[in-house]
Amino acid sequence: MFSGTYVALVTPFRNGKVDFDTLDRLVDMHIEAGIAGVVPCGTTGESPTLDHQEHDQVIERVVKRAGKQIHVMAGTGSNSTAEAIQLTKHAEAAGADSSLQVAPYYNKPTQKGLYEHYKAIAESTSLPIVIYNIPGRCGVEIAVETLVELSRIKNIVAVKHATGSMDGASALRTACDLEILSGDDSMTLPLMSIGGTGVISVIANVVPGDVKAMTDAALAGDFRTAERLHRKMFALAKGMLSLATNPIPVKSAMAMLGMCEGELRLPLWPMDEPQQKKLRAALVEYGLLKG
Predict the structure, then answer these.
(1) Residue 89 domain flag
(2) Is residue 171 one of the residues assigned to a domain?
(3) What average pLDDT does range 27-50 have in this prediction?
(4) Residue 201's domain spans which residues?
(5) Which three-class secondary structure string do you get for 157-221?
(6) pLDDT tens per residue, range 239-279
(7) What is the mean pLDDT of the chain?
(8) Phi, psi of 205, deg, nearest 5
């Protein structure tokens, strides 16, 4: 069901408000690039600082603009099961094609709690569910054994894998038939080499065509071409995301490229001048900006 490149969309802001006109243009760009889908209201979309009305409006707008030309995977996760269910039901009513459910953050549930959380969400909707396993941001890792149990629920169909462990991905791939999408751009090709089917990408906000070309090549078994593209993008992916917390660098890069304002919401804060210089240098080296 899930293969290729999905873009973890930024949420553009202007003067403290969601910039819906720019959001439309970004969706149009990804449709033109031919990517598989877009993911509004994920971590890259600054979902923690969107109020419920904004969250719902962003998903509605992206669904409308996509017009079924590309898949819309709505970020509707929460550390409150009831809130996640509410957000997911709205996304389904708005016409989203699937739901991305981040692991509950801060409250650090047990594995049994994680299982019951995802089971309750899945039972509340007919949308396909993609579980987002990112312990570095959530403070809890969903164990392979828990994911195997969850894979028996009909509409839990995939995992966004961002644990940094290829052994974990291999164990999951061996133990069940959940599809695995990379949640880390620099790890996409290694993950696809062991059975992953694609990526939910941050750098595809900036270079959607190159990310798509790499995942297309890997899916076709052309790992020589995929490796060439991986090496081309590796420095940008690692360099950009090592400068500051996502989505600070990618929004800054998009502002430098005239794609959107670089505006963030507190507690996120813009990069300082030395970081900006490093980011600009990376964009120049890639060929996206002139030196």
Answers:
(1) yes
(2) yes
(3) 97
(4) 4-219
(5) EEEEECCCCHHHHHHHHHHCCCEEEECCHHHHHHHHHCCCCEEEECHHHCCHHHHHHHHHHHHCC
(6) 777 889 999 999 999 999 999 999 999 999 999 999 999 99
(7) 96
(8) -60, -30
The number of domains in the chain is: 1
Catalytic positions, written as ranges: 132, 160
Q: Establish if 236 belongs to a structural domain.
A: no
Look at residue 241 in the predicted model and tell me its pLDDT. Answer: 77
Burial 92-117 (b: 16+ CB within 10 A, else e): bebbbbbbbbbbbbeeebeeeebbeb
- Report in angstroms the alpha-carbon separations of 9 from 143, 201, 202, 260: 27, 9, 8, 12
* 245 in Cβ contact with 265 (< 8 Å): no
Q: CATH number of the domain that 26 lies in?
A: 3.20.20.70
| 238 — pLDDT class (breaks 50, 70, 90) | confident
- Asked, for residue 119, whether it belongs to a domain, the answer is yes
pTM: 0.96
Residue 290 in tokens: 């002139």
